[in-house]
Specification:
By secondary structure, this protein is of the alpha/beta class. Helices cover about 35% and strands about 30% of the residues. The strands form three sheets. A six-stranded mixed beta sheet has the order 6-9-10-3-11-12, with helices on both faces. Strand 1 and strand 2 form a beta hairpin.
Length: about 250
């Protein structure tokens, strides 16, 4: 589904952040990317989505198509979704109005049906109709913001979900809900790239279908199964880097 080869990413032609990264993600696969702060995890997510501040070299193919020249909205229409680490506040725009517009303009759902669809899907992430009348993320807790991001994914029904630290600033109940929902999405054939510092968000995901990548200085230096998450949590990144010779 997603094939990245020899990817180099710099900021407006300046400092190079991603340095020759390779990654392949197929339908139904769950890839976890971990690494120290500043290793390039968020840059990778934004580069896949097409953030205009980054200059990209190398190849990125999605469903066989070279997406390097595509704008952000075109990548989204092809089925790529990015959930932000820090979802922004959009004062004056109600959640219900925004999500109805998404259904109508992107998914082609008739206007008379969009309201009920949004309300029903919101229940899946423990949001009610009164919540949906609020402005996007204004006054929301960390957990509420991440559940709004997840709701957008449910509404858009993308083929590939990229989630940048969905467990950041999230309470236990929200974390459990997000984890469970990600497991369901994977079972339904969605490809998932999850950026995280912790393994707890994986509690409801089938460990047999998880590939964990460790990122260091713009490269994926180590890949394996869920046992890598446990090693990182018990030993820390530096110890793992020493053991794998990744300091070299």
């Amino acid at each position: 589904m997603l094939n990245i080869s020899d990817l180099h990413v710099s900021v407006d032609g300046g400092k190079e952040i991603i340095k020759g990264l390779n990654l392949s993600v197929d339908k139904g696969e769950f890839h976890v990317i971990m690494g120290p702060n500043g290793s390039g995890k968020s840059t990778l997510a934004l580069a896949i989505m097409g953030h205009p501040k980054y200059r990209v070299k190398g190849t990125m193919h999605f469903l066989g198509e070279d997406i390097a020249a595509l704008d952000v909205d075109e990548r989204a229409r092809r089925g790529i979704f990015l959930a932000f680490q820090h979802p922004p506040e959009i004062d004056g725009v109600r959640i219900i109005d925004y999500l109805r517009l998404v259904l109508e303009k992107v998914r082609g759902v008739p206007r008379e049906k969009s309201h009920d669809i949004v309300v029903e899907r919101a229940k899946e992430v423990n949001l009610n109709e009164e919540d949906l009348k609020r402005y996007i993320n204004v006054g929301f807790s960390g957990g509420e913001r991440k559940r709004i991001e997840l709701l957008q994914a449910l509404i858009l029904d993308p083929k590939l979900l990229i989630l940048d630290e969905p467990d950041s600033g999230v309470d236990v109940d929200s974390l459990s809900l997000i984890s469970s929902k990600l497991g369901e999405l994977q079972e339904n054939g969605k490809a998932i790239i999850l950026i995280t510092h912790y393994g707890r968000i994986l509690q409801h995901v089938d460990s047999r279908n998880i590939t964990v990548h460790i990122m260091k200085e713009g490269k994926l230096v180590l890949s394996g199964g869920r046992e890598l998450v446990k090693r990182i949590e018990e030993e820390g990144f530096e110890k793992v880097f020493e053991e794998c010779g990744c300091h070299e």
